[in-house]
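Quick one, tokens below:
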């Protein structure tokens, strides 16, 4: 019996500077090679780098979707927070413009910016299953050094993301022993 072709969205909106995309491209090209329709959602700042790596694998069935206005680098904590907030605001616009329904959405991280798209699409019935890749736990601000405001916000984000994932995620993948206990 032939395998059913799935529509898969891979979300990686947490980039603030372009870097290597070998793991992401490895995942999505293997799915595309199996005949699935793949869309990768990235900020504009990552578009050329990920498209180049996808082209090197000469795989079809992969399209890159970017968020408008997300083509600037963010290197300080304040700029990263502003970039994430902006991405959260424009994500519904970008997703609604595609009119696409997805069988599976995979979030590359447990940052709010990466889990918002699947939660949003599940709420409007455009996503059947959400898979979260979660590889770290954010410790309480008291047990961390650095800016107390940034530490507090990242901790609260982590708690909020965990609660949303427990409600909406079809499954959560982790290799972190601490997360496996939870």
């Amino acid at each position: 019996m032939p395998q059913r072709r799935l529509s898969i969205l891979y979300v990686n909106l947490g980039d603030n500077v372009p870097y290597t995309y070998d793991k992401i491209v490895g995942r999505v090209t293997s799915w595309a090679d199996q005949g699935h329709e793949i869309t990768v959602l990235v900020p504009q700042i990552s578009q050329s780098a990920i498209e180049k790596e996808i082209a090197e694998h000469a795989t079809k069935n992969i399209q890159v979707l970017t968020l408008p206005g997300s083509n600037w680098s963010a290197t300080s904590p304040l700029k990263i927070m502003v970039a994430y907030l902006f991405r959260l605001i424009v994500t519904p616009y970008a997703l609604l413009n595609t009119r696409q329904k997805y069988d599976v959405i995979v979030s590359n991280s447990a940052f709010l910016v990466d889990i918002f798209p699947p939660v949003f699409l599940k709420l409007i019935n455009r996503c059947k299953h959400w898979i979260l890749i979660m590889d770290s736990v954010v410790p309480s601000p008291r047990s961390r050094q650095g800016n107390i405001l940034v530490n507090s916000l990242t901790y609260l984000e982590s708690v909020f993301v965990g609660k949303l994932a427990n409600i909406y995620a079809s499954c959560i993948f982790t290799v972190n022993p601490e997360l496996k206990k939870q």
